[in-house]
Amino acid sequence: ALKTNSTLTTLALTDNNIGDVGALALAEALKSNSTLATLNLQDNSIGGNGALALAEALKTNSTLTNLDLWYNSIEGNGALALAEALKTNSTLTNLSLGSSLIEDKGALALAEALKTNSTLTTLALTGNNIGDALFEALKTNSTLTTLDLWGNLIGSNGALTLSEAVKTNSTLTTLYLQNNSIGVNGALTLSVGLKTNSVLTTLDLWGNSIGDDGALALSEALKINSTLTTLDVPHNSIGDDGALALSEALKTNSTLTTLNLWRNSIGDRGALALS
């Protein structure tokens, strides 16, 4: 139907079982279709061959702007094919590959594509164990505005690499780093990047064990940073001392509008300081 239909703009097939065979059929249709803008294929048992077919379609398709392949098993080879397509595709703005088993191989290929791609604005790679493979590309990429890296084993060393990228990146406004084990040292290095960054507006550090020392480092950055509007630090073992440090920063910071501290270890003293 997509080969001849001229009105459909969104097709959502989430949580079906189309597999590679279905993905191949849709890919063929995308080569001639000129209206579909959003294709959601979350959780469809699509593997590397299906991803390869979709990637080939992206090289010629000129209308698709959103492609969601969350919870499929495209693995490194599938991500490699999609990365190659991104080097020439000039319409896709949102790509989601969350929990797709791409790991380092796929992430490195996507990083190379980001160095030349000029249209992708949102990239979601949740739960792929990619570490810090993407961060060097952020130093030169000038179009990506949202990056979701929830659950990717970034660690404190990865946070250091990311901090260096954040210092020079001029477009990234939203960064999700939930559950990445960056710890206190990671919070310290990210805080250094935040002191010079002038574009990031949302930073989510949920579940990273940054503790009071990490909160203190972030509070020092907030005294200087003038663009961050949302800071999420739930589940981080922040106690009264961390809350006190953040409250001091709030006395001078004039841009932060949302501070999320739920499920930490803040008691009466911390609450009193924040009030």
Note down, in words, how this protein is organized.
There is one protein chain. The protein has 275 residues and is α/β, with parallel strands linked by helices. Helix content is 40%, strand content 11%. The chain has helices at 19-30, 48-58, 75-86, 103-114, 135-138, 155-168, 183-196, 211-222, 240-250, 268-274; strands spanning 10-12, 38-40, 66-68, 94-96, 122-124, 146-148, 174-176, 202-204, 230-232, 258-260. A ten-stranded parallel sheet has the order 1-2-3-4-5-6-7-8-9-10, with no helix packed on it. Helix 1 (19-30) runs parallel beside helix 2, helix 2 runs parallel beside helix 3 and helix 3 (75-86) runs parallel beside helix 4. The longest helix has 14 residues, at 155-168. It starts with 9 loop residues before the first strand and ends with a helix. The mean pLDDT is 97.
Radius of gyration: 20 Å
Order of SSEs: EHEHEHEHEHEHEHEHEHEH
How many helices in DSSP terms? 10
Beta-strand portion reads: 5-15%
Order of adjacent strands in the largest pleated sheet: 1-2-3-4-5-6-7-8-9-10
Structural class: alpha/beta
Shape: elongated
Q: Tell me, rounded to a whole number, the average pLDDT.
A: 97
Q: Largest sheet at a glance?
A: 10 strands, parallel
Residue stretches low in confidence (pLDDT < 50, at least 5 long) are none
* DSSP E strands, number: 10
Report how far the terminal alpha carbons are from each other.
Answer: 60 Å
Proportion of residues in helical segments = 25-40%
